[in-house]
Write a sequence for this structure.
């Protein structure tokens, strides 16, 4: 394509340079007819050219007219567009102005609220300050009451503990020491990690032994923490050979009555509960506990001590089983007594009805019986007013049923 363009340009340049010469050469060589024909052709060509130019001039004038009409239309359109744009711009500006006014009104409303809140801030702060002061005073009063209550509870618990310690100390002095020659007791309640009392006793071998005695006066069961503390106190005292825990008003957790356990260093410890036990039995129990520990500690070897403890546990287990058997027997006897009472009541009903001339299985009329038929411990009848349909008064009807 580049070469074709270059060749065309070269031809045009060459044509322009040789045009006149070629035309003259062509004109000279032509004959007269040919010259006339050529002239005619030239005239026809000029006429055809003029006609073509006229047609083009007419088309151009029509195009110009159309252009003028189009320019008018364009002007009208431009004017219409400008008007529409102006209208749209005006509407948009009005909308933005309204939005701006609304936003400003909202901001002004918010500012008014803030101003109102700021104006009431001092009052709120004062109210909060007063409420805070009142709350602090109330908290201080409650803390004072709580401290007083804690102090009272502490004093109460301390007083209860001291009462329990005094009870055990009195039992040791008035009952245990007189029963054991060369025995002595030392109050250690003011010293921590030493149990409550140190009881020194003489073993069968003639050697002195120390027993640590700990007393508890809890409404609830003595927990394992207190048991572990006694174990620790017994093991920490190199002179201590064993220990006794006494619970005055509750049972001991995981421990049976009179159970003998071992501390981590294999020192024997006896556990006693005085719950629901009278004064005389308490004296006997603490004396038995001390004597058993003396017997265990008097054994020559660890094996002998273990055998003795096992025998004691077997003995106590046998006693528990015997008590269970006795409870079963008592339940059986109670059932038999209830059966005999029912038989007796049936006989009485039949006799009373027979004497009254009624069927012997009828309900007893209490008016025919003189007073309650319950027999007291002294062997006499109660004799009080009967409940209808029975031979007993109000107090004995439920018990004798």
């Amino acid at each position: 394509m580049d070469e074709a363009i270059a060749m065309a340009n070269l031809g045009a340049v060459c044509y322009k340079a040789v045009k006149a010469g070629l035309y003259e050469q062509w004109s000279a060589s032509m004959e007269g007819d040919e010259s006339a024909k050529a002239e005619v052709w030239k005239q026809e060509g000029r006429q055809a050219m003029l006609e073509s130019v006229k047609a083009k001039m007419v088309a151009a004038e029509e195009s110009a007219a159309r252009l003028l009409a189009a320019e008018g239309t364009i002007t009208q359109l431009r004017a219409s567009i400008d008007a529409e744009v102006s209208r749209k711009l005006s509407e948009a500006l009005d909308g933005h102005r309204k939005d701006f006014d609304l936003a400003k009104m909202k901001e002004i409303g918010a500012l008014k609220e803030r101003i109102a809140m700021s104006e009431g801030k001092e009052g709120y702060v004062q109210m909060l300050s007063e409420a805070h002061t009142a709350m602090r005073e109330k908290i201080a009063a409650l803390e004072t009451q709580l401290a007083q209550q804690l102090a009272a509870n502490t004093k109460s618990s301390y007083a209860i503990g001291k009462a329990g310690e005094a009870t055990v100390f009195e039992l040791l002095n008035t009952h245990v020491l007189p029963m054991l020659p060369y025995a002595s007791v030392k109050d250690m309640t003011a010293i921590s990690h030493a149990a409550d009392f140190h009881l020194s006793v003489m073993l069968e071998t003639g050697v002195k032994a120390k027993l640590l005695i700990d007393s508890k006066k809890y409404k609830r069961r003595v927990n394992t923490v207190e048991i572990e503390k006694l174990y620790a106190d017994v093991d920490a005292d190199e002179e201590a050979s064993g220990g006794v825990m006494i619970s005055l008003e509750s049972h001991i957790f995981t421990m049976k009555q009179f159970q003998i356990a071992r501390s981590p260093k294999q020192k024997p410890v006896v556990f006693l509960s005085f719950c629901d036990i009278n004064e005389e039995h308490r004296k006997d129990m603490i004396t038995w506990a001390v004597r058993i520990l003396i017997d265990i500690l008097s054994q020559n070897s660890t094996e002998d001590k273990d055998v003795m403890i096992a025998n004691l546990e077997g003995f106590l287990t046998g006693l528990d089983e015997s008590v269970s058997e006795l409870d079963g027997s008592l339940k059986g006897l109670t059932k038999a007594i209830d059966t005999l009472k029912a038989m007796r009541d049936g006989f009485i009903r039949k006799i009373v009805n027979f004497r009254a001339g009624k069927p012997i299985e009828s309900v007893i009329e209490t008016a025919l019986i003189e007073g309650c038929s319950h027999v007291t411990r002294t062997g006499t009848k109660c004799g009080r007013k009967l409940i209808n349909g029975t031979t007993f008064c109000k107090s004995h009807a439920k018990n004798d049923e």
